[in-house]
Predict the structure of Signal recognition particle 54 kDa protein.
Amino acid sequence: MLDKLGTSLKDAVKKLAGKTVIDRAAVDELVRDLQRALLQSDVNVKLVMQLSQSIKQRSLEEEPAKGMGVREHVLRIVYQELVRLMGSTTEVTLGPQKILMAGLQGSGKTTTTAKLARYFQRKGLRVGVICADTFRPGAYDQVKTLCDRINVPCFGNPKETDAEKITREGLAAYKQLEVVIIDTQGRHALEDHLIEEIINLNTLSKADHRWLVIDAALGQQASEQARRFHEAIGIDGVIVTKMDGTAKGGGALSAVSETKSGIVFIGSGETIEDLERFDPDGFISRLLGMGDLRALVERAEEAVSGEDLDVNAMLKGKFTLRDMYKQLEALNRMGPLKQIMGMLPLGNMQIPDDAYDITSSKMDRYKVIMDSMTPAELDDPSVISSSRIHRIARGAGVSPDDVRELIKYYKTMQRALKGMRGMGGGKFNMQRMMKKFGRTQ
Ligand SMILES: Nc1nc2c(ncn2[C@@H]2O[C@H](COP(=O)(O)OP(=O)(O)O)[C@@H](O)[C@H]2O)c(=O)[nH]1
Ligand SMILES: [Mg+2]
């Protein structure tokens, strides 16, 4: 889904991560790349400009969280602004409710009705569907076939031309069911007649929810439809369909979000299972290819809020075995090391893959080994000679190779940190960058 947008956004972020210095020019370039990606996805120009402005301004004005490098600071802002652009989500209650489906013909209403029936059925609710589409030939057969597949009752009458009558009878027939979804007709355009009918069906059914189905291929045009239907019946949830088949999905989502109608689901395929709850955070994380970045950012914030992981101090010079251990402990608490490292200012450094492979049992072993070291050795591991290695190994009940492995690991990390100095990760560079920003402002 949204492969193209995802790839372009990922490339933009990767480019930033690979920069030696994150200065104003780097942020400008990132913003330009983001703009190109979003415009190609048919996001409205005005929205793209607002996002660009926010990213630039916040990168410059906001203090990075303690212990965080400029790179991550900017990345976090980009992520937050993209989430904001893609909008809000709307709660779905898992209880008795009547849902009225609205939207133009071909938007995917009937397909989505069946997908929703399946969704609520999976949640253990008793679901029924009413076919109030008396316009499209074969409408009843279409929805009935879909419902039969999932054993959901479907009320309708292909011979009846009065949609209100069918709806009334259907609601009476399905009184005992918990979730009733009313599929309605849709015309090819926003005709007065269509709007009138949906208003009547809404009044008559006393629907708890009015969900609008919109085709993602509309791109930014989606906002006009969302607005019109909202004016008519007060849309309280939008489902953007066919996200799998268009490059304009980003435009559709942002356009809907701008109308303040929350997005409830997205449709991403033709089968009955291709329905996903929409969550801007998860969505953007996936687009950026960073797993659940939000959770990682939060965890990173928790971890660095203590004194545990003071990247700035380490950058300034001393990096002892004790520092390394503290750092590993903090990182371990955050979760998968490799993902975390990717987010920290260390992100673009060449860290060998096995350096990530710090299991907790290895951590325990390191701790035991370090307990057998003298304070002088812990502060300056370069004094650890071969005979000392044997002494430490004996004291810790491990092999000399285990001690050597720890020292080797320490050296790798030390080298990595040295490489980082002057690369824009430290406080010193941070301040310099701010000055630079200030001057050119
Ligand atoms: N690829 C894809 N096709 C979809 C999706 N939702 C609906 N469709 C297709 O869009 C066409 C119109 O859907 P339909 O439910 O009949 O739209 P309606 O006129 O609004 O009821 C059908 O061919 C569906 O299979 C989706 O999320 N992805
Ligand atoms: Mg239909």
About this structure: The first strand starts at residue 97 and ends at 102. The domain at 318-420 is CATH 1.10.260.30 (434 Repressor (Amino-terminal Domain)). The chain is about 55% helix and 10% strand. The radius of gyration is 29 Å.
